[in-house]
Design goal:
This protein has two domains: 8-116, PLAT/LH2 domain (Lipoxygenase-1, Sandwich); 134-177, no CATH class. The protein has one helix and eleven strands, in the order βββββββαββββ. It has one helix at residues 115-129; strands spanning 8-14, 17-18, 22-23, 51-58, 67-76, 81-91, 101-105, 139-143, 148-152, 158-163, 173-176. It is mainly β.
């Protein structure tokens, strides 16, 4: 039930103005706004320059009008830039905070010059560290508040009493700061 049958509207804002509220009418898909689906719309407007935010929402009408929106990507055909607006929230009067419209700011790579580099380092770190999370390993977290260890055991039990000593011998540690 993450899709919606409601009418969806968007307003795109850039350094040269905004589009005003526009209904997203014709998707390249026969049924629009279905769960897990990517819909593509053409919105005609004067060139707005660099985009910085959008306002997107729906009218709340129709059965199953709640909508979980992952993200919006706007492709500028003049500059060939992609602008990404992350949402990952419900637009639903009965879910999340009850809002059916969201104001989203741009989060594209041009706003974060080191983003690709950071993503590559994250992937390299995960490749080097993922062995710790394999079946059979015991994870120990040191809690600075209790000055003890919290253990996640291979049998899926958790020892959260905060033992003061390492009772598992050679184990790696992941430090958590509260």
């Amino acid at each position: 039930n993450a899709g919606t049958e409601a009418d969806v509207y968007i307003s795109v804002h850039g350094e040269r103005g905004d589009t005003g509220s526009r209904q997203l009418l014709r998707s390249q898909k026969s049924k629009k706004f279905l769960k897990g689906q990517i819909d593509v719309f053409a919105v005609e407007a004067v060139h707005l320059g660099h985009l910085y935010k959008i306002v997107i929402g729906h009218n709340g009408l129709g059965s199953g009008n709640g909508w979980f929106l992952d993200k919006v990507v706007i492709k500028d055909p003049i500059t060939d830039l992609d602008y990404t607006f992350l949402c990952h929230r419900w637009l639903d009067q009965g879910q999340d905070d009850g809002n059916i419209a969201r104001e989203l700011t741009v989060t594209d790579a041009s706003m974060f010059p080191g983003r690709q580099e950071l993503e590559l380092k994250r992937e390299e770190s995960w490749a080097a560290e993922k062995w710790k999370f394999q079946t059979g390993n015991t994870l120990q977290f040191y809690n600075r508040l209790t000055r003890g260890f919290i253990c996640l055991n291979p049998d899926t039990t958790v020892d959260a009493l905060g033992d003061k000593k390492n009772k598992y011998g050679k184990v790696f540690f992941m430090w958590m700061y509260a």
